[in-house]
Amino acid sequence: MSGLNKVQLIGHLGKDPELRHTQNNMQICKFSLATTEQVPSGNGERKDKTAWHNITIFGKQAEVASRYLKKGRQVYLEGRLDYGSYVDKQGIKRYTTDIIVHKLVFLGSNDSQPNAGYSSSTPPQTSTNYTPESDQFEDSENIPF
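Given the sequence above, the corresponding structure tokens read:
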């Protein structure tokens, strides 16, 4: 039996996306996403609890995300958890947890983001299945204009 590694999130971008390119000229878009839920505080009231997630998007969808997303924009995304590690400048091993996105849906209206810089009245909704092992994409874009 195989396993399941699936993440679904709805949240707001904590910063503008950063677009980079690999040596093979593949686009990589990274940003942080905040999800907030209400949890009981000790006194019977509810308190907001925010979790931050590191988001990574590859390929054509990365380019679309970097073009249309801005800090504060609400999105729905699906992906998988990916764990990594690196050694920082002080020689300390650090661990990372990222969400590798394969489906991204823009939520909310452009009116709620007056400085978002969208070139159309409806931002694109894209879905790209990416397999890093094979460096292959299955594009299934649905860009309503």
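The longest helix spans residues 59-68. Try to locate this feature in the token string yourself.
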